Amino acid sequence: MQVFLAEHSGFCFGVRRAVKMAMEALNSGGEVCTYGELIHNPQIVQKLEQEGISVCYDIKNLKDKKVVIRSHGIAREDLEILKANGNIIIDATCPYVKRAQELVSSVKELPILIMGDPDHPEVQALLSYGGKQTRIIKPGEKPESQMWETLCIVSQTTQKLSNLQELVAQVLPHTLELRVFNTICNATTQRQEAALQLAKNSDLMIVIGGKHSANTRVLQELCKQVTSSFHIETAAELTPDLLNGAQNIGLAAGASTPENIIVEVYNQIFRIKGEPQSVQQIEEIPVYKEESC
Amino acid sequence: MQVFLAEHSGFCFGVRRAVKMAMEALNSGGEVCTYGELIHNPQIVQKLEQEGISVCYDIKNLKDKKVVIRSHGIAREDLEILKANGNIIIDATCPYVKRAQELVSSVKELPILIMGDPDHPEVQALLSYGGKQTRIIKPGEKPESQMWETLCIVSQTTQKLSNLQELVAQVLPHTLELRVFNTICNATTQRQEAALQLAKNSDLMIVIGGKHSANTRVLQELCKQVTSSFHIETAAELTPDLLNGAQNIGLAAGASTPENIIVEVYNQIFRIKGEPQSVQQIEEIPVYKEESC
């Protein structure tokens, strides 16, 4: 049996930065809250709560505190409320998400389609920066068949590039000018490409990440197109049945999946298979490269 | 045997307008020339010459004349030379081509890709309205794999929409902002769709138009993807061999194909088949609609 980890798995720059900023805020004293869960990973959120960083879901309860804005960003109006209520703002919005917000804001007089999951906080925040003609469109959803003189398209940063390409091809005949802001973050694309590459060379893919994590879901979607694939949140979900005799197992992890969970999953696979191998840190897990197999 | 004509066949608005403007110029007196052939149809060009509208290929010979700018438009520098040499300009540039020129001009400080045939006068003229970072890219050609902060894309008005969609999908991952000006003219799209629809329901397609006509070539390309198809310029090219027992024959014609040539081709088919049917005008040829077959 061999187990490889896909390149670019785990914490992305934006998530690493958000966790670091939250911890620094805590260490500099005062009561620290995040408005909503800092990242889409319950294990990390729990760990942060144990350290003393609480999660608040009701904006009315946030007054005169240190409030960390999570990497997904928050709606423009919510930011104003937080400021008006005397909170100190620690803005950990991912810079790539910030750029998307600024782009939406800069063309808000024009019709804008935001491609993404309407329930995702990043998308809801993006929407708040648009104007009256800003709409959300789900990946794969058919756009209205109307003519646009100028149409802008922005994507949730963690979407699949192929979904954006498909949307663009669909609206192109119905526009005179189409402005596409490619707001899919580079780390997202690299992570997706690496996971897909590994999936093509594996009997089984284990995709690790929060069940609400958009980018982890996309990884799972991509992997299951080419091989057997499961999405798990922790090593506890792994069972002998699930591994079902697979010999070439691939691991991929979302942008908010901490290293220790990846390590636990890796070790658990070997434990289930009755092989004594185990690693202490992520650096010991072999990373899949084209030439690995 | 049945013979149908594809909807939207023959003279488009831009070509009709150009021929009309040239004739009006002639009728109002003075020596009238076109700089290059007015449209991509040798039979029409010959007819215009017989009427007294000569074709000039050497710009130096155009002085103090009435010069008709053809529907493809001309290079910015050439227009300046014509004006400087005391000519009266009759600008019959197709308004859709004009719009494309104005769009290229409006973003000339940015990198621009013009998708089209590098040898086509429309494309060469478009290029002259761009800046240092304006390039021509052939349909189907792979773009350079570089990163663009902002990239603009414009198309030759008679290109296939699918080629534009493919180019856009290819460059999208390499741009932060992509501005696509959909400059493919509506008549072009309609003509292509109608020809393809008819081709799908025909044993044989006869595509009629000038051998140098870009839009006729695209029609031929599309039709031969789904059925047997020939590109001819006049009825004289039709032979019994070519018809080869076809029972459902479709006709499609480019934007610069005059009605009388379509009528001649229609009649010639029946003559070859030994059937007495013949028509006097294009209105008598049955036009194919979805429900025709």
For the structure shown, list the relevant keywords.
homodimer; alpha/beta; Cobalt-precorrin-4 Transmethylase, domain 1; Rossmann fold; 3 domains; four-stranded parallel β-sheet
Walkthrough of the structure:
2 copies of one chain form a homodimer. Chain A has 293 residues and is α/β, with parallel strands linked by helices. Chain A has 3 domains: 116 residues, 4-hydroxy-3-methylbut-2-enyl diphosphate reductase, catalytic domain (Cobalt-precorrin-4 Transmethylase, domain 1), CATH 3.40.1010.20; 82 residues, Rossmann fold; 89 residues, Cobalt-precorrin-4 Transmethylase, domain 1. Helix content of chain A is 37%, strand content 20%. In chain A, strands 1-12-10-11 form a 4-stranded parallel beta sheet, sandwiched between helices. A 4-stranded parallel beta sheet of chain A has the order 3-2-4-5. In chain A, strand 2, helix 2 and strand 3 form a beta-alpha-beta unit. In chain A, helix 4 runs parallel beside helix 5 and helix 7 packs parallel to helix 8. The first copy, chain A, is flat, with a radius of gyration of 21 Å. The model of chain A has no long low-confidence stretch (mean pLDDT 93). At the A-B interface, helix 6 and strand 9 of A face helix 6 and strand 9 of B.
